[in-house]
Amino acid sequence: MKKNIIILLAFFIVGLTACEDELNQVPISAISSDGFFTSEKGFEQAINGVYKSLSSYPERQFHLSDVRSDNIYGVGSMGVRAHEPVNNFALTLATNEYMKEAWNTNFTGIMRANTVLDNISEDLVPDATKRNQFEGEAKFLRALFYFDLLKYFGPVPVIDHLVTPTEALEIGRNPVSEVYDLIISDLQDAASLLPTSYTGDNIGRATSYTAKGILARVYLTRSGPVLHTDGPCLETNDYTQALSLLNEVIGGPFDMLDDYAATFDLLNENNSDIVFDIQYQKGGLGVGCAYPGELAGSAYWRSVGYPYAIGLETKDVSFDLINSYDTINDARFAFNVQMGYVDESNGQYVEDPVTIKFSRPDPATWGADRFDFGINFPILRFTDVLLMKAECILQGAPGSQADVDKIINDVRARVGIEPLSNATLDDLLEERRKEFLGEGLRWHDLVRTGKVLDVMNAWIPVEDVADQMRKSINADHIIYPIPQEQMDVKEGLYSQNKGYE
Q1: Which residues cross the membrane (predicted)?
Q2: Cα–Cα distances in angstroms (integers) from residue 105 to residues 5, 102, 173, in the given order
Q3: Cα 25 to Cα 28: distance, rounded to the nearest angstrom
Q4: pLDDT, tens digit, for every residue of 226-252?
Q5: Which is higher by pLDDT, 18 or 168?
Q6: In this predicted structure, what is the pLDDT of residue 27?
Q7: Domain boundary assignment for the chain
């Protein structure tokens, strides 16, 4: 799939609230009349264009989830960078570049998916298997983009068909419950339409297992306690439904690898622990990954002899997280974290603990520049599926304490640490924190379990040695503000999320 899936199509660039130059491009509704959607090949290229909207997903999850959480202490010394107000819980985030990117990129992906869904038909794609696959992929990806938007912004406009920029100006934000309705419907359809696996270059596309696993995560999130009236949790108690879906994935062709590091090996991609990941290809083709550069920062990359400029500041792994590891026995610690390095610019040792899970000092993973790393990024791993099953049971779904303990201890045994007994939800969250560092899950885990305010308000006063962060957070900080440029498009169309300036 690396050869096929990440193909950027020029006419899929237009966003819902595009700038004037973008609005002067060919209208989206005119694509079919231009002859693009006349063959199966055209639809395949269009679907690849939808996948392309996932390109910046890793950086977004890191900055808006890991950096926001107790995993990363993102206070730097190189002047205020865009990630610092996110880390510090600033109230002025409406103008932050990460808000803009999260909104625009996800809605661009939704528009691309809608373009496929509005044009596909039996006449244009007579092969029912292929037609189902294209429809299933488009619905899966649309649901994934909407789930991302919902977790970060709460209510957002629900747009399930192509609209003109003028029509978009009349569409307000839908309640979270209605956004969930579309997400769940799309994922249910995708699960029934998609195949269970692919071969050859198509390996890596979304499967029915992928749709079921993400739907289980959706149910888990929707079931969480309501801390914010417009947040992603609705206390729907969907834990049994989530468990059923997770068991279906567990019955599929997946397994944890014996070696934690092998899960992230460039030469072992699409292994049995991967249910769905973003496919990247190095080689100067514009389809590589920029995330490793963002993850570790410039000084680290200089220390390992990386030949290209990075120009990014280190975001330190928090000492609270470091201290939670068994640093001697837990194989994840040495693989995920490097406690310091020698800055080649001055020969000085830098005591910056950096996340190196995807930032390996291995030239085999390096491409033509810092935007061209080849390593894939997992959106859903089998290990996550297992731990979500344990979470469902701890939240009241059918199962026993023995089932929970076995799952957690299998994960611990794989990395060489002692078993637990009578594991609690807090134990589970700590295991997830160490397992998924750098994979963008921590903030979402804390929100959906209702632990976010207690955990963060205990962590901030201890970790914030530079005295830069808000002293305590409240429910308003669970979601982010609507980007200011969206607020400015049409006065009164949206109201800003509570607590933001």
Answers
A1: none
A2: 17, 6, 17
A3: 9
A4: 999 999 999 999 999 999 999 999 999
A5: 168
A6: 29
A7: 10-279+378-389+436-489, 291-370
Cα–Cα dist 370/341, whole Å: 19
Which token pair is 346? 């001055």
Q: Is 477 left (phi over 0), alpha (psi -120 to 50) or beta?
A: alpha
Distance CA 320, CA 313 (A): 20
d(CA 309, CA 307): 7
Task: Please choose, from the candidates 365, 334, 339, the residue with its C-alpha nearest in 3D space to the C-alpha of residue 353.
Answer: 339
DSSP of 248-290, one letter per residue? HHHTSS----SSGGGGG-GGG-S-TTEEEEE----SSSS-SB-
CB atoms within 10 A of CB 429: 17
The domain over range 10-279+378-389+436-489 is classified in CATH as 1.25.40.390: yes
Per-residue pLDDT tens for 164-174? Answer: 888 989 999 99
CA 347: distance to chain centroid?
A: 36
CA distances to 103, 231, 450, 495 from 156, in Å: 10, 11, 22, 11
Closest CA to 104 of 491, 430, 426, 486: 486
What's the confidence (pLDDT) of residue 143?
Answer: 98
Q: Which of 164-173, 217-226, 267-276, 427-436 has the lowest mean pLDDT?
A: 164-173
What is the three-state SS of 398-429? Answer: CCCHHHHHHHHHHHHHHCCCCCCCCCCHHHHH
Tell me the HSE value of 481 on the side-chain side, using a 13 A CA sphere.
21
CA nearest neighbour of 480 among 179, 100, 132: 100
Distance CA 323, CA 128 (A): 54
- For residue 145, the SS3 value is helix
Are 383 and 435 in contact, with CB atoms under 8 Å apart? yes
* Closest of 449, 445, 430 to residue 322, by C-alpha: 430
End-to-end CA distance of the chain: 44
* Complete DSSP assignment for 180-197: HHHHHHHHHHHHHHS-S-
* Chain centroid to CA 192: 23
Spatial distance between the Cα atoms of 400 and 351, rounded to a whole number of angstroms = 44
- Give the SS3 label for residue 377: strand
